[in-house]
């Protein structure tokens, strides 16, 4: 595997960790301003996510690369296989301002994004969205994100 990719990915993950450390209040206020159950759930998800990032960043380069291909992070491309009909679809989990449905860029705040974030390759997961629920197999995870998040996109 390309060592510069691992270094670049590590830098991106550090930037995500710094962002959530330094800008979490602005993030929550901007995307979930009301106190309550929804915000508490989002705060819990981001706490779990940042804890996972800390564990991943503590790894050596080989382990880091393995994590980038085994756990869904912000910036991961995720290939899912629908269990009911066997069709496959690929999504990329992104920050909310980078959502692009035509490219299958799914916000980490969307119902699908929240449920795929931190999922593991090989896992079968039931995804619940407003249109219904469906079981998917996480076929493949690839970290590929090199964009930056800003409030304006």
UniProtKB/TrEMBL annotation:
Keywords: Elongation factor, Protein biosynthesis
Pfam family, one: GreA_GreB
Molecular-function GO term, any one: translation elongation factor activity
InterPro entries: GreA/GreB_C_sf (IPR036953), Tscrpt_elong_fac_GreA/B_C (IPR001437), Tscrpt_elong_fac_GreA/B_fam (IPR023459)
Domain Transcription elongation factor GreA/GreB C-terminal per the UniProt entry, residue ranges: 70-143
Transmembrane segments: none
One GO term of the biological process aspect: DNA-templated transcription elongation
Annotated protein name in UniProt: Transcription elongation factor GreA
Organism: Paenibacillus tianmuensis
């Amino acid at each position: 595997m390309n060592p510069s990719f691992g270094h670049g990915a590590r830098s991106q993950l550090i930037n995500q960790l710094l962002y959530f450390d330094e800008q979490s209040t602005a993030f929550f206020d901007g995307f979930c301003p009301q106190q309550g159950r929804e915000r508490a759930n989002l705060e819990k998800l981001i706490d779990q996510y940042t804890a996972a990032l800390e564990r991943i960043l503590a790894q050596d380069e080989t382990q880091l690369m393995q994590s980038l291909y085994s756990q869904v992070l912000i910036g991961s491309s995720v290939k899912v296989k629908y269990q009911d009909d066997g069709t496959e679809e690929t999504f990329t989990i992104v920050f909310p301002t980078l959502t692009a449905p035509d490219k299958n860029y799914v916000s980490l705040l969307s119902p699908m994004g929240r449920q795929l974030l931190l999922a593991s390759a090989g896992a079968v997961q039931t995804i619940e969205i407003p249109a219904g629920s469906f079981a998917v197999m996480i076929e493949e995870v690839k970290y590929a994100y090199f964009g930056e998040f800003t409030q304006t996109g």
